[in-house]
Task: structure prediction
Amino acid sequence: MDGFEWNKFAAGGLLAAIAILVAIILTGEMFRVAPLEAQAYAIEGVEEEGGAAAGPAVAEGPSLAELLATASAEKGASVFKKCATCHTIEKGGAAKTGPNLWGVVGAKHAHVAGFGYSAALAGKSGEAWSWDALDAWLKSPKEAIPGNKMSFAGISKPEERAALLAYLNQNSDSPLPLPKVEPKAETAEAPAEGAAPAEAAPAEGAAPAEAAPAAQ
Ligand code: HEC
Result:
């Protein structure tokens, strides 16, 4: 075979390879399955990943009261830098994009008279900003009070929110007392366990006492 023949062979092989490639691409395209955009059929009680119904199996961290008990207002002051573009904190401070925040912990929602609050926030003016309400607000303003106009994504770390709350609470004429830390279930049960041997003790001691009169 001369060189020309070899070239024909090579060209034939190349063509075959290209044909196979094209076939693979085409069939791949044909059988490509578009990813589901939503659950194809709803199963009752089952929410999408990360939803509330994900189950109580997720270990709960310390409660807000526990976090507040050890929260550092000093750290909170540095977290407040995220807020300072829109809020002043000092007494009588001016409104920026958001209202002045002096004394907001424990105050009613929409607590600054004359500030142009959204209808969503103004609608809650009968309710006080409790620790829990503020914590939820700072975690995700959008979820806590839908329709409000504070363009802030939220602070995901519970410790950071607690520190910030401690700082906000300090900046007030009448800081709220910290919430009570509920005793954990284990510590509440502990005395009951300790009581068991104490009950058994008199019973054992009583046996010889009963026997004594019989011996006389
Ligand atoms: C981009 C500007 C912006 C940032 C950043 C921001 N806020 Fe706000 N904030 C607002 C606005 C605007 C409102 C009023 C919302 C409404 O009326 O719906 C508001 C309202 C509030 C309120 C309710 C006040 C009241 O009188 O009821 C609190 C509390 C608050 N912000 C705390 C914070 C804290 C703490 C931070 C920092 C973690 C923060 N905000 C960051 C703009 C902002």
Summary: The radius of gyration is 34 Å. Residues 82-83, 85-87, 97-99, 101, 104, 109-112, 117-118, 120-121, 138, 148-152, 155, 164 surround heme C (CB under 6 Å).
